[in-house]
Design brief:
- The chain has 323 residues and is mainly α.
- The protein has two domains: 132 residues, no CATH class; 187 residues, MetI-like (MetI-like fold, Orthogonal Bundle).
- Helices cover 70% and strands 1% of the residues.
- The chain has a two-stranded antiparallel ribbon with strand order 1-2.
- The longest helix has 38 residues.
- It is globular and about 85 Å long.
Length: 323
C-alpha cells in the first residue's frame, strides 16, 4: 500500500503539472494586479521552484509534521479546506448509502436467482435495468420535484442541503439530550441523497449477485448436495451463497472509496457539502496542494477498501490464505 501511495502521489503531481497554466494564470488577466505582485505571489506559493523540489517539500511536510500544505486560494490549511465541516457528513452519507445498497441488493439478488424466470424475477430484473439506466443526478432531480410538487414540502422541512436555515448553527445536543428537531430535519434532507446514490449501486449488485448465484447453483457440488438429500435452504445458503458472495466482497472493497468521495453531481444538485465538492472546486481553481491531498486521500481509501475486502474474502472462503 505504501509504495502504491507514493506512486499515486508522484503520478498525481505530474498530471497536475500537465494542466496548462497554474493557479496564477487567471490573475494575470486582471489589470488591477501588478506584475510585481504576481511575482511575489508566485514566490510565496513556491511556484517558482523546480518540480522535484516542490514535490519533495510537500512530501517532507506530510511525513515530518503531518502538514499537508496550504490552499492557494485562501491560504488555509488543506485539511480544513477539504475536510472541515465535510468529512463527517461525507462518511455518514457514504456508510448509509452502502448499507442501503448491500442490505437490500444481496437478498434481492438471491431471491431473483432462486426464482429464475418467475414473474417476480422479471420484475426485479426490470427495475434493476431501470436503476442502472437512470443517472444518479437525474433521480435526485426527480426526488426534489416529487418532494416539492407532489408532497408539497414547505419551509418548515425544506428540500436540498442538510438542514433548513433555522438548524444550521444549532447544536446537536442540549447537554446530554439530543436535539431531536435538528436530527429529524437532517434525516429528512439526506434520504434523497442516499436513495439517489444507492439505487444505481443496488441495481448493479443485484445483477451481479443473481448471476453468481445462478452460476454456482449449476455447479457439480451443488447438484451433489441436492442429490444427497440436503434441504434446499442448506444448499443455497451454506454451499452456493458462500461461493457466490466472493465477487460481491471484492466489489465492496472497491466501493469503500465512496465513503469519502460520494457522488459529485448528485451532491451539487442536492446541495450536500461533501469532500468531493471541495475537491472539484480546487480542480477548477488549479489549487495544487488541495488536489494533491484529495487524490492521495481517495487512493488511500481505495487501498484500505481492497485490504479490508482481502480479509473478508479470507474469512469467508477457507481456500483463500495469505502468507
Amino acid at each position: 500500500m505504501i509504495p502504491t501511495l507514493i506512486l499515486v502521489s508522484i503520478i498525481s503531481f505530474g498530471i497536475i503539472q500537465l494542466i496548462p497554466g497554474d493557479y496564477l494564470s487567471g490573475r494575470k488577466l486582471d489589470p488591477t494586479i501588478s506584475r510585481e505582485t504576481l511575482e511575489q505571489q508566485k514566490e510565496n506559493l513556491g511556484l517558482d521552484k523546480p518540480l522535484p523540489i516542490r514535490y519533495w517539500k510537500w512530501v517532507k511536510g506530510v511525513i515530518t509534521r503531518g502538514d499537508f500544505g496550504y490552499s492557494f486560494s485562501n491560504y488555509r490549511p488543506v485539511r480544513d479546506v477539504l475536510f472541515e465541516g465535510r468529512i463527517g457528513f461525507t462518511i455518514f452519507l457514504g456508510i448509509m448509502s452502502m448499507l442501503f445498497t448491500y442490505l437490500f441488493s444481496i437478498p434481492i439478488g438471491v431471491y431473483s436467482a432462486t426464482h429464475q424466470y418467475a414473474p417476480s424475477d422479471h420484475i426485479v430484473t426490470f427495475f434493476a435495468f431501470i436503476g442502472l439506466s437512470i443517472p444518479n443526478f437525474f433521480l435526485a432531480l426527480v426526488l426534489l420535484y416529487f418532494m416539492a410538487a407532489v408532497l408539497g414540502v414547505g419551509p418548515n422541512l425544506g428540500i436540498g442541503g442538510l438542514f433548513i436555515e433555522k438548524y444550521m448553527g444549532a447544536p446537536w445536543f442540549h447537554g446530554f439530550v439530543p436535539n431531536m428537531p435538528k436530527i429529524s430535519n437532517f434525516f429528512w434532507h439526506v434520504w434523497p441523497y442516499i436513495l439517489a446514490v444507492g439505487t444505481a449501486s443496488l441495481a448493479s449488485v443485484v445483477r451481479l449477485m443473481r448471476g453468481q448465484m445462478l452460476e454456482f447453483m449449476n455447479r457439480q457440488f451443488a447438484k451433489t448436495a441436492q442429490a444427497k438429500g440436503l434441504k434446499e435452504s442448506v444448499v443455497i445458503y451454506k454451499h452456493v451463497f458462500r461461493n457466490a458472495i466472493n465477487p460481491i466482497i471484492t466489489n465492496f472493497g472497491y466501493a469503500f472509496r465512496t465513503l469519502v468521495s460520494g457522488s459529485l453531481i448528485t451532491a451539487i444538485v442536492l446541495g450536500v457539502p461533501t469532500v468531493q465538492r471541495a475537491y472539484w472546486t480546487a480542480l477548477n481553481q488549479q489549487d495544487e496542494q488541495v488536489i494533491m491531498v484529495g487524490l492521495t486521500f481517495f487512493a488511500l481509501m481505495l487501498l484500505v477498501g481492497n485490504l479490508f475486502a482481502d480479509f473478508l474474502l479470507a474469512w469467508n472462503d477457507p481456500r483463500i490464505r495469505y502468507d
